[in-house]
Batch of 2 targets.
Target 1
Amino acid sequence: MLRRTFLGLLGAAGASAALVKPTQAGNKHFGPHPDTHGVLFDATRCIGCRQCEQACNEVNELPAPDKPLDDLTVLDTERRTDEKTYTVVNKYQTALGPVFRKMQCNHCLEPACASACFVRAFKKQPNGAVTYDASVCVGCRYCMVACPFSIPAYEYDEPLTPRVRKCTMCYPRLMEGKLPGCVERCPKEALVFGKRDELIRIARERIAQYPDKYVDHVYGEHEMGGTSWMYLSGVPFTEIGMREDLGTASAPELTAGPLAAVPMVVGLWPVLLGGIYAVSKRNAKVANDERVKAVKDALKRAGEEAEKKLHEELGKAEQASQRRIEVEVKKAVEEALAPKEEDAGSNEEES
Amino acid sequence: MSVETTAVAKKSLFTPFNLIATVILIAGLVVTVMRFTGGLGAVTNLDQNNPWGIWIGFDLLCGVALAAGGYTTSAACYLFGLKKYHAGVRPAILTAFLGYALVVFALGYDVGRPWRLPYPIFVQQGTTSLLFEVGLCVMLYLTVLFIEFTPALFEWLGMRKIRNIVVKMTLALTILGVVLSTLHQSSLGALFTIAPSKLHPLWYSQYLPVFFFVSSICAGMSMVIFEGTLSHKPMHHLMDKEYLDNHDGLILGFGKAASLVLFGYFAIKLIGLAYDNNWHYLTTGFGAWYLVEMLGFVALPSFLYAVGVRDRNLTVIRWAAGLTVLGIVVNRFNISLVAFNYQLPAAQRYFPSWGEITISLFVVTLGVVVFRFISTRMPIFYEHPDYKGEH
Ligand code: SF4
Ligand code: SF4
């Protein structure tokens, strides 16, 4: 709330008053919605047939890949999803022989991509899918930086209308009541679609039933705050290319601290800076006053001295002019009395 | 005055600077055409694992940090009452304004649909995103910097009334500038807090926003010294007595402050290391590189600054400034490129392409050319004769 008020204020101050719509959804959380669905992938059942890849390619009308979708030699090199491939199956050599693992967007409960996107192009749908809206995307690719599973891909060769591409959990098909393409096509039931809590129950049951067959961990139950896609495996998850060091904090949790600091900076900084300004101004004023006083004193002293000097000078000048007058007078008198030589001597004595 | 400068410009049309600049600008235009006809893939080495390259690491992260001279200088002068920095304010503001303008310009190459850059603010706001905060603050701060710059423009154009109105707003603008800078300098660091699994633990920290903010202060002050040194010679004839008289004082003052702030930065980096208990990484290859960054580009310049200030040795201070500027580039590169995706096999790591390097050089060159154009015409390094001592 605070933050939204602040942003509103900033907007009003800067450019747009309608910066943040009051109807906007919660600022921190994207879900989980009670009805969240997901998919459970069981690596012990997957045979690496690439049927799911094929189905994905078809239902999403993706461009044909370089090598045919039924070519299993593709499995020899590890691949990742890209702008033409929403899902890939990789083969890993383990102590139990080759294990196959499917990878696609995990449809996080609190998606890093959605939390990172500054135009809200990603949306966590009530049914669990994380969808993308190309009509607002700016193409900054921060979503790609943010995704802990490195899933979103970008159309680098599109000069003017590049989009971010990733699995949509077949959102359009879900809305029609159909299954995701890959789930529908899987011949081994390595993929199960359903309500997320239901899936967790199924997973736990399988582990309980075959404790020797499974690692006791449902990957995705808590990773990065939990995901809609979850995984079961017979070998440690790191051996099939999945990171187990992601932690359980969701992306919004990771950035909550810095975001919470914003209103504090906006609230406190101007006050502190204003204070510093006041102090420095006061300092300057005190210094200035002192200077003014010093100058005044100096001026006063100088003035007094000058006056004294003036006085003296004036006195001297007066004397001088007095003397000049006297001299002049004397001269005149002398001239006037020139004939009377006897008087001149006494006159001089008097002055 | 203007007759004189144009005469000077005409005489020196074929300087090495102009020749190199022309070559870079032409190369930049060629790459520009390739970028907007063939897409990012045609000119960059970016891929699905490495969505951000040097256009973000250098143009954005370094650009913004190095433009921090604007808010540090104006804060020192107007808020902290250090009037001797006054002469340095205008060059710093101009540099910051151009710096940010170029950051936005460079983003136009990097983002997929540049004409949608206003979308996050005007169409649909992703307020949970730190990038949203960066975008909003950069936009607002660019506006503030432009307004702060306009007095020079209005003096040049002889528009006294409006110039005086803007000058009256100096204090408010300065405070707004510091607030906005604090926010986006730190949120640039915070951008990476969302990806703990991708950034090497030695560089990942919940304190990243604080690290970015504090180091931006060092960057800002060092840039002012560094750039003052660079423009000293070619612009000397334009600098007035106030600028030249205060220049050395400014260098000493900023040198002292930079020494302290760098020391503080070193200390909080250590705290971060201890808080996450990452000591054991120091013995790895990344650890060695981390130590190079911390000792060579933080501790060393801090020490050099201190020595330079104690001995009043401007040369040492200038070296320290250069080292700090380089250190900021190293740090921003480490976070966005070197330590990012550290877990990927070497073959999948990113290295910039020639096209990307060309555009980055292009942007820097453009900045220098525009800076020269403006500072040789407008009252940047000298006070306009009509407004002497009127600040
Ligand atoms: S896996 Fe990545 S792209 Fe998919 S929802 Fe999670 S963060 Fe988003
Ligand atoms: S690239 Fe598009 S979807 Fe991804 S964060 Fe940027 S604007 Fe959002």
Note: Chain A is about 45% helix and 10% strand.
Target 2
Amino acid sequence: MSAPQASRPRIAVVGAAAAGLAAAEGLRRLGWDGEISLVGDEPHPPYDRPPLSKQVLSGTWEPERTALRDADQLAALGLDLRLGTRAVAYDPAHRALTLDDAGRTVLRCAGVIVATGVVPRTLPGGDTAEGLHVLRTLDDALALRERLAVSGRRLAVVGSGVLGAEAAAVARALGHDVTLIGTEDTVMGRVLGPEVGRLLADVHRAHGVTLRTGQAVTGIRREAGRATGAVLADGTVVEADDVLLAVGSVPAVDWLRGPGAEAAGLDLSDGLRCDEYCAAAPGLYGAGDVARWYHPVLGREVRIEHRMNAGEQGLAAARNLLSELDPERFGERRPFTPVPYFWSDQYDMKLQAHGVPAGADRIEVRVLGKDPLRLAALYGTGERATGILALGLPPRQTRSLRALVAVPTPWPEAVTRLTETVGT
Amino acid sequence: MQITIDEAKCCGAGQCVLVAPDVFDQRDEDGIVVLLNAAPDAGLHAAVREAATICPAAAIQVRE
């Protein structure tokens, strides 16, 4: 075990994807002149994930294009960059971060930002087989892309959320035989509601995707160690050459578990629980997919697995950590109150959602065209609008709908403005 | 400061327009980012850096 003496104070950012990079850049830009250790378990320099299920999978982009910064830009940050290195423990009381490298290095830190993201959920039993895929990392995407480079494959996609829908669209566009398996007769219906979900399911059917709905997948059929199909709850098998599991993900917090975390009172039950400043404990902040934090405007805890949140929260965590370490220099901490955003590309459709559509108890859908599908939808919880969806809308209209969820807007007023905006 | 845009990466989120409306706009047809000013004054630099950081598609590159 080695514990090298740092000559300068150190902030460690654990996780070297979008949130971690945004945090590291934010620290530097805001004036942190101490050490910054950026620790990433993958061997690749920071890269962007949204293109993996789109341009990378389809083969239109080479993997290099997903790089978030080039070598010169990374070098200019003056980072202690530790790629291919996993963090295995953190002791908040001693601010000591342990790395799983050859020397089992322990880094003493002035502060730590946790940006370790999520890992894909697998089937019960943690099935693995050749031809059974998940899609989270660049290497995952390249493995599936290699299989889809041969024409006439049969691909079974388990899960009809955003990731499954995008991958199905790409595989269909490449001419493969695609079956999309979901528990409901919708695509992305859990997030966007049943009406929009059914319209999206129709689009996928119209593009030739076979939808198998209403049944959970209970296992993977395999022959000679290779996946040959997905087994449904009633015992039928969707035959396939490759199976993609797109059934959600779990926050990567296991490395934080331990006596130190317990003593510090960390709550790791659904990600790293943080307060409105993105702080989980003194000197410990969370950002991106892994962080569950109290959003004071929404009035509840949220954990958001969207690309934009990674950048925004990385920056917010960096700012607030510096403010905690040196308030005189960096000013007061600020609550993190973003308007969430995500988008999805499927075929020639671009869906954009602002705010929080999921979990709405009222939804107002305005279908503006069916071929191609164009629509606007408003989502509300209680007495106010919480989210909007724009599909095929001009940007000015989308921005004016976003304004309805950027500040709390009563539901009737929001519906009126929806009508004024889209003219129906 | 020198800003470059990768239109093929842009997802049309419009966040850059909200953060730095003097520097960025969106095309009416498809929402793709339009760079109004590739070398803005120092007073706009902080907003531009923030726009680049939060761009969900990493379509904005800033060199200083």
Note: Chain B touches chain A at residues 9, 11-15, 17-18, 26-31, 49-50, 53-58, 63 (CB under 8 Å).
